[in-house]
Structure formats: structure tokens, C-alpha cells
Amino acid sequence: MSGGDAKKLVRSPSGLRMVPEHRAARSPFGLDEPPWVPDKECPRCMQCDTKFDFITRKHHCRRCGKCFCDKCCSKKVPLPRMCFVDPVRQCAECALVSQKETEFYDKQLKVLMNGATFFVTLGTSDKSELMVCRLSNNQRYLVLDGDSHYEIEIIQISTVQILTEGFTPGGGNTRAIGMILQYKVPGSEEVTQMKFTAGEDFSCNKKLSAAWLAAMHKVSK
Length: 221
Prior knowledge:
Largest sheet: 7 strands, antiparallel
Strand content: 25-35%
CATH class of the largest domain: Alpha Beta
CATH architecture of the largest domain: 2-Layer Sandwich
Order of helices and strands: EEEEEEHEEEEEEEH
CATH superfamily of the largest domain: Zinc/RING finger domain, C3HC4 (zinc finger)
Number of helices: 2
CATH topology of the largest domain: Herpes Virus-1
Helix content: 10-25%
């Protein structure tokens, strides 16, 4: 692990977190911990309106910071976007969101970091280059390697358009065959475009390319 990607274990009121030593190295998918609603400002559960007392205790959701009774905030769910080491207490609404995000972290992000092979066309050029495209380990850059090398910062990407084929007016399945990516060049307002095409005539796993494109579509959302 490079120095820029080094992490440290920190303890917050919500639990243990494994975070980057330098804030600039944090993942673009990360979330800051929310401020907790002060105890004195929540005499009742913010979901079911049950009054708190010595028997009915209050709990804070680690994702939204609101105050709930145990019944309304009983779920302990992984929260990778906040870098928690263990599952943390969340309200029912936040738990549903976090469960969907955990699937994204467990599946789509791994697909993106494993990479896939595409023909890449830069700008208005009529020439394409065979490149391996992957998400960097710190999730901050899209890395393209071939005869050329590019590193595109995720936060600089403005548009992701997935190209498909197979659609018919009467309905039918489509499959992802490519992508058009637009991003800003650091230090300027210039927008650069790249086109990614899953080739039909080279020995690459088409299912892998389609899965990578589908994961990239999830990222754009």
C-alpha cells in the first residue's frame, strides 16, 4: 500500500472506522458521519412518536443521525460508505439504502476494480486503441492501460452514456456494447470525450465487458 493510500483506525461515537490517513485520498463514494440530533431536542421517537423514558431508551441512526426508539432503530447493517469496520445501528429507512449500497460495494465495485478490455477512442479521432480499463484500488481514478496510459479522476466525470444494442420497438432484451464518457481536464473547463467499445473480433470475455459496463452505469447513478 502506497503512502498516499495508507489508512488508520479511528473511533467515533458511532463505532470503529478504517479511514484514509489523508482526506484527499478518500473514496468519491464516501460519506461523512452525520451530526447527531441532540438528546435534549428529541423527547420522542422521530419515527413512531413514542415518548422516551427510563424504559424506552433513545438510539441514534448512524447514517442519518436522527433519534429513534429501539423498535424503530434495531437493525445493524454494514455501512461501507462511512468506512465502518462492523455493522452499525440504523433506522429502517437508512438500513434499506445501506443494504443496496453494500451489494454495490460487494459486486459492482469489485467488477470495476478487476477491469475489462475495450477499444477506446479519444475525442473525434477515427483511431481506437485496445486498452484494459479498471477502477483504481482507492476508487478515485479510472485507469486505462494500453500503448497509452490515462488516469481519469472519478469526480471529474460529467456524463456516462451506456451504448446498447438489441432493442426492438415491440420489446426485447438489450445488451451493453460500449460507453461514451465525458470528463473535465483538471485545471481547465475543457471537456474530453472517450468512447469505449467491446470488440467483437478479439479474445475477450464479452460477459466480463458487459458486467463492467453495467457496473459503470451503477457508478454514474
